Structures are given as C-alpha cells and as structure tokens.
C-alpha cells in the first residue's frame, strides 16, 4: 500500500507541472496568471500567447494524463498483484487533481479538460475520438470553448454509461462522474457568464 501512495503522490506531482506558466515565462516572460482570464488553461494561453502556444499548452497538459495512465496500465499488466486494488484510472485522477490544484502554482491551475482528455485517449482511443468530435463540432459552431467542454464531458458521462451494455466498466463510469463534477465546478464562472451572455468567444 505504501508504494501505491507514493505513486499517487508522484502522479499528482507530474500533473502539477504548470505548463501554461512555464510557456508564458519562456515565450513572453510573463506570468499568465496575471493576464486574460488568469487561468492556466490552454484557452487562456491561446488568447494571451497566441494560437500556436495555446495548442502547445493543451498538448503538454494532455500528455500528463496520457503518460500517467499509459505507464500505470503497463505496470498493472506487468505486475497485477502490485496494483490489484488500484485501477490505473486512480493515478489518472491524481494527475488531473494535480493539474487543477498544482502544488507548484499555489494550487490554482487549469480546468481539468486537457489532462482528462489525455487520460481518456490512453484508456480508450475510440471513446476519445467520439467525445473530441463532439467538442470540435460544438466549438466550431458556437465559438465557446467553455460550453463545448461542458457539453462534451456530459456526453462522455452518458457514453460511459452505455459503452458496455452487458459489462459496464464501473471504474471508468466512476472516473467519468468525477471528471464531470470537477469540470463543472471549475467552469462555474463560465456558466454564470454564459447565462448572462457575457462569455467570451474564442477568436484564435
């Protein structure tokens, strides 16, 4: 159990790497938390640093979830007894929590979308493609990244329920629920602005 706790902490620390903060410092010498929406997500990075760097931030934030889940899935295959009680998804959630509440950035990070996307890609590529398609269609239509994220994660939860009719993956379903709640909480200000018709549309 001790090694599992250590690995959970390691997953959290990797998730805590403040990619947007690092990129902002390297590219423009600024603290991105002091610009735009002051969020360390890829959307704000795109607005403040430019489209190219927004994509870079998204890619690296997603990579955190992808690598963590891939790594511990391999560990589970190589040593089932060592990780018998922990699904690799637990380590993925730890990485997501690190991204949202990073110890390296005063516990104020992104909104969980990119790292969650990377984790889902590693766990089930087809599932990822379906949800990402929904996201891209909505963002193309509405130009609202926040609304697209909220709808996509809800679709992901519904999809997780019906993904395997005969043998539901309860671990994945539980993970989808946790991600849903977390993303909704992190987007509560966006939800308020959408209701007030003051939410900013993506311009890049």
Task: Give a structural overview.
It is a single chain. With 204 residues, this protein is mainly alpha-helical. The chain has one domain (2-195). It has helices spanning 2-15, 19-28, 42-49, 51-78, 88-100, 113-123, 125-142, 145-162, 170-186, 188-195. Helix 8 packs antiparallel against helix 9. The chain is globular, with a radius of gyration of 17 Å. The N and C termini lie far apart (46 Å). The model has no long low-confidence stretch (mean pLDDT 88).
Summarize the structure.
The protein is mostly helical and 204 residues long.
The helix tally amounts to 10
Low-confidence stretches: none
What proportion strand?
under 5%
Number of domains: 1
Taking all Cα atoms into account, the compactness measure Rg is 17 Å
Helix content: over 70%
- State mean pLDDT (0 to 100 scale): 88
Secondary-structure element pattern, one letter each: HHHHHHHHHH
Distance between the termini: 46 Å
Going by helix content, strand content and strand pairing, the class is mainly alpha
Q: Tally the beta strands.
A: 0
Largest sheet: none
Overall shape: it is globular
């Amino acid at each position: 159990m001790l090694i599992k706790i250590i690995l959970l902490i390691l997953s959290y620390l990797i998730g805590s790497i403040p990619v947007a903060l690092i990129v902002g410092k390297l590219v423009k010498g600024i603290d991105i938390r002091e610009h735009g929406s002051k969020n360390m997500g890829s959307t704000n990075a795109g607005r403040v640093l430019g489209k190219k760097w927004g994509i870079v931030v998204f890619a690296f934030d997603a990579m955190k979830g992808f690598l963590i889940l891939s790594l511990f899935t391999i560990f589970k295959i190589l040593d089932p007894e060592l990780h018998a009680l922990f699904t690799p998804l637990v380590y993925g959630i730890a990485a997501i929590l690190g991204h949202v509440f990073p110890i390296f950035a005063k516990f104020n990070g992104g909104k969980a979308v990119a790292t969650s996307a990377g984790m889902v890609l590693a766990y089930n590529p087809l599932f990822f493609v379906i949800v990402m398609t929904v996201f891209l269609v909505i963002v193309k239509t509405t130009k609202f990244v926040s609304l697209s994220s909220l709808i996509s994660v809800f679709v992901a939860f519904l999809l997780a329920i019906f993904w395997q009719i005969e043998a539901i993956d309860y671990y994945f379903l539980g993970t989808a629920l946790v991600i849903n709640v977390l993303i909704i909480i992190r987007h509560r200000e966006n939800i308020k602005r959408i209701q007030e018709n003051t939410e900013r549309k993506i311009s890049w």
